[in-house]
Amino acid sequence: MILSSSVAKAVKSHSETTENKYIYAFEDGNKNMKDLLGGKGADLAEMTNIGIPVPSGFTITTEVCDLFLREKNYPDGFAEQLQEQLAVLEKKAGKKFGDKKNPLLVSVRSGAAASMPGMMDTILNLGLNDETVEGLIEKNNNPRFAYDCYRRFVQMFGDVVMGVSPDLFEEALEKMKEENNVKADTSLSEEKLKDLVGEYKKIVKNQTSEEFPESPLEQLKLAIEAVFKSWWNDRAKTYRAINGITGLKGTAVNVQSMVFGNMGDDCGTGVAFTRNPATGEKIFYGEFLMNAQGEDVVAGIRTPMPISELEKINKSIYNELIKIKDVLENHYKDMQDIEFTIEKGKLFLLQTRNGKRTAKAAINIACNMVDEGLLTEEEAILKIDAKSISQLLHPQIKKSAERNVIAKGLPASPGAACGKIVFTADDAMQLATEKGEKVILVRKETSPEDIHGMNSAQGILTSRGGMTSHAAVVCRGMGKCCIAGCADIIVNASAKKLIIGDLVLTEEDVITLDGSTGEIILGEMEMQEPQLTGNFKRVMEFSDKIRKLKIRTNADTPKDCKVAVEFGAEGIGLCRTEHMFFEEDRIHLVRQMIIAKDEESRSKPLKELQKFQKKDFVGIFKEMDGRPVLIRLLDPPLHEFLPTQESQIKELADDFNVSIEDIKDVISKLHEINPMLGRRGCRLGITIPELYAMQVRAISDAAIEVVNKGQEVNVEIEIPLVGEVKEFTYMKKIVQDVIKEYGDKVNFNYKIGTMIEVPRACLTADELAKEADFFSFGTNDLTQLTYGYSRDDSGSFIPKYLELGILEKDPTATIDKNGVGKLMQICVELGRRTKKDLDIGICGEHGGDPSSIEFCHRIGLNYVSCSPYRVPIAKLAAAQAAVMGK
Amino acid sequence: MILSSSVAKAVKSHSETTENKYIYAFEDGNKNMKDLLGGKGADLAEMTNIGIPVPSGFTITTEVCDLFLREKNYPDGFAEQLQEQLAVLEKKAGKKFGDKKNPLLVSVRSGAAASMPGMMDTILNLGLNDETVEGLIEKNNNPRFAYDCYRRFVQMFGDVVMGVSPDLFEEALEKMKEENNVKADTSLSEEKLKDLVGEYKKIVKNQTSEEFPESPLEQLKLAIEAVFKSWWNDRAKTYRAINGITGLKGTAVNVQSMVFGNMGDDCGTGVAFTRNPATGEKIFYGEFLMNAQGEDVVAGIRTPMPISELEKINKSIYNELIKIKDVLENHYKDMQDIEFTIEKGKLFLLQTRNGKRTAKAAINIACNMVDEGLLTEEEAILKIDAKSISQLLHPQIKKSAERNVIAKGLPASPGAACGKIVFTADDAMQLATEKGEKVILVRKETSPEDIHGMNSAQGILTSRGGMTSHAAVVCRGMGKCCIAGCADIIVNASAKKLIIGDLVLTEEDVITLDGSTGEIILGEMEMQEPQLTGNFKRVMEFSDKIRKLKIRTNADTPKDCKVAVEFGAEGIGLCRTEHMFFEEDRIHLVRQMIIAKDEESRSKPLKELQKFQKKDFVGIFKEMDGRPVLIRLLDPPLHEFLPTQESQIKELADDFNVSIEDIKDVISKLHEINPMLGRRGCRLGITIPELYAMQVRAISDAAIEVVNKGQEVNVEIEIPLVGEVKEFTYMKKIVQDVIKEYGDKVNFNYKIGTMIEVPRACLTADELAKEADFFSFGTNDLTQLTYGYSRDDSGSFIPKYLELGILEKDPTATIDKNGVGKLMQICVELGRRTKKDLDIGICGEHGGDPSSIEFCHRIGLNYVSCSPYRVPIAKLAAAQAAVMGK
Lengths: 886, 886
Known about the structure:
Two copies of one chain form a homodimer.
Chain A: H1 5-17, E1 23-25, H2 34-49, E2 57-60, H3 62-71, H4 78-93, E3 96-97, E4 103-104, E5 106-112, E6 122-126, H5 132-140, H6 143-160, H7 166-179, H8 190-208, H9 216-230, H10 234-243, E7 251-257, E8 268-273, E9 285-290, H11 294-298, E10 305-306, H12 308-313, H13 315-332, E11 336-343, E12 346-354, H14 359-371, H15 377-382, E13 396-397, E14 405-408, E15 410-413, E16 416-422, H16 425-435, E17 439-443, H17 451-456, E18 459-462, H18 470-478, E19 481-484, E20 490-492, E21 497-500, E22 503-505, E23 510-514, E24 519-522, E25 527-528, H19 534-546, E26 550-554, H20 558-566, E27 572-576, H21 578-581, H22 584-595, H23 599-624, E28 628-632, H24 646-656, H25 660-670, H26 682-687, H27 689-708, E29 714-719, H28 725-741, E30 749-756, H29 759-763, H30 765-771, E31 774-778, H31 779-787, H32 798-804, H33 820-834, E32 839-843, H34 850-858, E33 863-866, H35 871-884
Parallel strand pairs in A: 3-4, 16-17, 17-18, 18-19, 26-27, 26-33, 27-28, 28-29, 29-30, 30-31, 31-32, 32-33
Antiparallel strand pairs in A: 1-2, 2-7, 5-6, 5-7, 8-9, 8-11, 9-10, 11-12, 13-25, 14-24, 15-19, 16-23, 20-21, 21-22, 23-24
Helix pairs in contact in A: 5-6, 6-8, 7-8, 14-19, 19-35, 20-23, 22-23, 23-27, 24-25, 27-28, 30-33, 34-35
């Protein structure tokens, strides 16, 4: 298309005058610029600006990452900006990048808007080459240090940028240690380290057919590229997928003057939390190593010292650190996770961020900060990740149970877990997902490559690493039990053996982990329900005050009801009657009913079933004690109740004294090509009205009995799978007619409404609202129909979709706001247009998902309904939605 | 809810002052009041007001019917209005209802807004009882006539109102005739007729345990009720279902002074069309019987005389009729279907309505009326039922074929049909729908009870009845071949024999009907394509001038393309590539591709397939000669291409030299629980990109070859089953990359667009429109997903839904405007918001359905695409939509 000349002129002059800013010096950013500078960059900028000692540096924006990944090239003007910023950095440091006498070394670190620990790649000591290393030696008069930096740099760069397997470098290092008969890296002499650099460069050349780049500027550009590209590496993608991180442009890159914790014994490095991330106690909590670089602490190779020891070693540094931690916590109004380095007695902060914490810690910190006057109740609940509190809602090891403790490690992530031992992430995933086994992943230490196995396992046990090791950090994020750094155990992964003294455990053995004590227990332990008291209760009280959404539960049995009510459920949002049909004492009657050839022979088993169903409902009504109980009439296609195996068919035929052919006829008649789209829901009710009539009779009988015994009953009878208002009116009349049979005996309250799970129901909600007393979104089916996916079959393409980024999240877990959500909004709008105060809820998987709950709050639903264990999560998420929606 | 007192006051005063008008005298209505007065009532009113001689009367509105059916009672004030209107009627007639000396008799007839011939019930001579019959005798001095009226009345009333089987009355009549040794009803004496009245009343008493009502007012009220209730009788429901009549409130009831065509030889009755309803010729066309009541003509019991004979019998009446017919036709600007009665030399019109006609007649009448200056072209096309012209588009008996004519009847409805003989409607339906056989329904005469069988049969043959008999009228409406009143044949339904002289045919024999000549031919005749010339061509030219929608066709082969282009198709709207995969020479390669275990072994069969696909596309591009050709990339799940039977599986295993288990593994891996919602459409393309790439290569190869030979190619490559824009962009890139491989060789025009068949695609159409060059609605799948129905499985509930009125129409045949249509509107609106001139079409079943086409015009689509034979229908429907939309 040819632009008109005036338009073309305007476009040109625009691009000439507005130069894009690709790089920000730390002084130019602030903590609100996370989208552009990443979390790390924004926080480095913020710290710089509030006077915290931070090594100077600059941040390349996430936009550059996005442009680079799309265009496979840096944008115009980027190179100039990089030169400018380097010049500023050199001036501040009084060193020059690539200088033979006094070289500036930098670190290159990734940092996206959302924290992804261990996922992205980092390069330290960049700027070293055979010439600058001499400058470094000269300047510090410490050749061992200089060559140690150099060999580390070559190793990291070779791995991250040039793609050489880190094992090859490790092998060379081990070989060098063996040859020199030393055990620790630190025992290698400068000469040997220098040789090692040469070895490493040879390895790079052998593996890549390329020379190791000597030009510091080229090193820098390649490193930046590598960080950008790592945005799409498998580990990063897996982490984002597991943690539901979407919508980001990419990672920023932070280039920062190096400070060294490994320059001698007056140097060190550490990581710390301003409060205990496992318990929430207001205790400064962390670990450090003297004469080490940062990677040594988190990689878990050397076991670090607790932060309190620092006071003994260097009191003034320790006091400075305490002061800084208080400044940061007050500034950010949140618990901080910091990294620091001591270079020749001078303290530098390398990072601060809101610290990851266990749910227990999050709750305690939130409540403590309210008590300290640092946060309001509304601010406080936003500090808790609603999803994470599920870890508090799951069983712990029963207190009274006798424990056969075989070892003890660091209580790195609380909760309890038991399962079969596995030694590799792949085994963990295979056993867990394919065989449905519960497994404990046992490793020397974990790495980002293990994410999929960690996700599949019940819990993680490592023999190395501390409370901030990879395993510990990731597990706390996942809300998964972890015991780390258990020095008592020997993990022999190749032989698949876990050795504790004389005890040798193999893959057949079951162990139990207590993540709160660090105890490893032989065998399977009895678990107990969590105690939801203290600060947990307070957070629930805050939430109850703040939230607008009611929280109901999906429960089919009195037992489920009891748990849910204890968790604070305000009613049942979905009681599925089919689950009752499958119970052993009923399935026979159900089959008899299905096989019956006419209404008459169907009536006998129906009458029997009615008695069972009545009993079910009595139990539920009692337990719910007047709270609303939504009961869905039978939904699944009838063939689900029939057997498929020849032997079972024969048994059934014998039972009913009919021929096998008769049974097969019924099965084949009921067979459907697409059962999801077949005769189920109200289609069953309309074609076999006596089935729904039986259920309504059972409901009425039960309700009358419970009311007569002095409790209230509020039942909501739900017609499923309605897509056309006439389906509803037809079924409604059948329900009403049955209830009318009871005449004056009807002493309970009832409503008749419909599930909204067919797209057409949303589109005709104005008509449905004329007839229905309530709506309840069945977003499982609604999602499947809106996408045209069957959850049973989408396994053949959904993983590929997630991998390719075609889907950012699995829409069956989190409501697809853009599509399914639009239908829901249409439904709410049309429904309320007809009936202003129409009661609308949601049941199904999405009802317990915080992001979906936020959406439900926003579109004005009255309640969400979720599984009993998710009720507290839903309460908190609903309150958070109410605060954020203000 | 308690109304505030001022509101309550307002409500009260409103209901006091506004009395509802439930009944309209003919003088008070007009032809535009069909919704309220029904077609018959509105036309009686219109005729009354333009001075046509009509027996006076009044119409009870359809609203009363609706109220009565819902409340099971007449509305307040109705009885008073009925009394008032009866008084007016008595005054006009100079007779009194129920009077012993000079009784007013009335007819009670139904009449809905849409014509439903023979479907609703009629009662004549109402008002007779043992007393008033004496008055009738006295007044007319004709006791035989009076008792004939009386026994007819009791018979009709007994049947229609009191539910006594008409057979019982017929038996009594036959017995009476036998006993008196007479053959015709008319030969029974007054005494015998009087006895018959007594017999009939006894039958009523025996059957119903109720006395025959003697009070004329009670008779009237019961009759009105019976008419109302008949709205929901099975015949009426079936007729409405078949003819897609929906949205009506019910039937009106016309109460009219009786006039008698059976009072003697100066009396008579007839029905006529103002033009020939079979051919459209401008010839007054009808039948009459002297000394008969109206029912005798249409029931087909006596064979009536052609209308031209009336001139000889009573020239002045004939001339008056001719005048009236011209007045009516000019007034209504349409061909009229009239009923008249001559009472003692005086002519009365009992009914006029737009006459049903064959498609051929409709076309000729429309064109003739344009030529006569009566209609504009735009008005003229509205006179043709678009659906009906399909009868002109189907084969006729080949002209040159030798005919073994075994009998000849009246050419009651044109077209040709052949099939096996069946003798009952049930047999017709069973053979046709269950076994897929073509059948000819052979009956003495048809009745409304036969509708389902007539619908299933290819054609109808009757031995009795004329051109206006039930069979003839219904068949013309259905566009189905019919030969009526074939006196040469004897139909012995109980013995299942069709006897023509010495020839005895049974259910195994095949006959052919020529509905245009009335010839019955033994055996199956060769058919020939219709000639679409003359007025048909003119109507198409009118349509082409008027319509806004383009018409494309769904065609997968060059042969289909040829037919479609001859019918005037302007492009291909859907070329399904999977049909090509099933052809014998390819299926082997397709299976080889599916069984292949990796990309490499898949590439060989794909390369072979590409050659075949190229050949297909060359043929299509050539035939379409530069018209747009939309090609959908492979859509169905792969398992559809694999065999299911053990023997075929073995064959396949042998062919590919693999084990049976290998094949079974592939089949079981591809098995899906809900294949409609599984891996198909673009999900295939994304998971097996080389498959779509092959198809795009075949398209490109073909297009380049055809362009090089001098034709133009405009191809539209369609990605199916897209629900998320990233699916589209991913596939689009694959398509573009393949085309890029051809570099400068690309000499054809192409667009890349998507099918809109997943609800989510509609909801995110704004995003899709950014990437897609065009949209094409796949309303088959869209309907299934929006309702959550699978067409394969809905047989277990859709018939019940239609029967119960839960669905008014099958949404897979006519677009569900209320649900699916809303999604389409959302899609068009969002799509065009992004891309103002986005090309949007529709393919699939709905593209050839006039009501759906009207909707597509209204929401602004660019084209509809339908099967080749439906192209002319679509053109006409599109033009009608354009006229109506003005």
